[in-house]
Protein: Cyclin-K
Organism: Drosophila grimshawi
Amino acid sequence: MPCWYYDKKELRETPSILDGATYETERRYRKEGARFIMECGTKMGLGHNTMATGVVYFHRFYMFHSFKSFPRYVTACCCLFLAGKVEETPKKCRDIIKTARGILNDNYFYSFGDDPKEEVMTLERILLQTIKFDLQVEHPYTFLLKYAKCFKGDQQKLQKMVQMAWNFVNDSLSTVVCLQWEPEIIAVALIHLASKLSKFTVLDWLGRQAQHQRWWDMFVSNVTMEILEDICHQVLDLYQSTQKEGQEPNSPPQKPPSRADSPTPTTNVKSLTANVDCPPPPAASQQPSGNGGNIELNNIQTIKSLASVVSVSGPLAPPSDTLPLGIGVNAVGAPLPPPPTSNLNSNAANYHMYHAPPPPPPPVVPMPPYAGNAWTQQPPPPTHYAAAALPPSMPPNMGPGPGANSGGGGAPGYYNAGRQQQQQQQQQQQQRYQ
């Protein structure tokens, strides 16, 4: 199984940062994508596990790809679409896109291109390869409830503390703590933060033993206060950055994938993201103000070119017996070619076998009509027996001897000679017993 936990140095050297984005910009893009998934999932009535799984896919995806190559909102819809299948709460792709259209303005929805469903379905194949088909994700929610059931004290204060910790877990999805620590450690840290803020100190708990100095020693061992404080500070910094973002302008629109520059084909994901050109910022007259603004972009290229560039060999290759969901692939793992744009009745050489016109029907051979009295007339009897040759004559040694029929004493034939001898033996036996 792949390891999805990184240290702080690796988080400072992501493909987006190597592509020219700043650390603060990447963190803001991650937060915007995570909150978009939560808002879109809430409007569609999805559970917290489905939304959290989609956010984890989102963070893992951008550890291998740049935000400049794949728009965050298109990726967010794709992650939510895949998470619905994994968590057994599937939603149709068109319903997710329809919900996203109601959330995003025209400027941001422009990144979905001319065919939003095709963009999301094609990106799903890249997402599956990027996360290495590791679909099962654990979340701190389960561990949070498990730990809270063991606490003793005022139930009203305990319930308030658990609710606050639950909200912290929801907000932590907008950070990268899921890429640094296991879910049980995150649950311990956020319960510790909620207990400090709600002034509910856990003094006693079920299953307490003498060697347990703190309540989390019974569940997670070797967890220092430095680790817990680091997680708490990342969540608290999220609220401080939210206040600062209220005074900053909205993030600039991203070039849609249907009009993005095609990246240079490579065999490595990091080299792929490093070779993608950064889209130029819009001009001053085209700079959006608030939620409006229009942009004129060129270099039309579909996102399928990005899908064909991502290598299907190496660490991101899917297993041989596994096919991505919702995407057609052929025997070598490449996407099926699109249908031809010309007339289907022509005989162009570039036709695919699935899009070729049907073959013409075979010619109809007319049969001779039946005669009117065909059912009443009897066919004539066959005549080939009348001309048959006579059977051959019996060999001379098999027939009767000369004069046998006339009572003469001619020499008997082979058959008669044997018959006479047998008769003589029978007569001698009869005379002997008389």
In short: Residues 258-302, 308-356 have pLDDT under 50 and may be disordered. The longest helix spans residues 23-43. The chain is about 40% helix and 0% strand. The domain at 140-245 is CATH 1.10.472.10 (Cyclin A; domain 1).
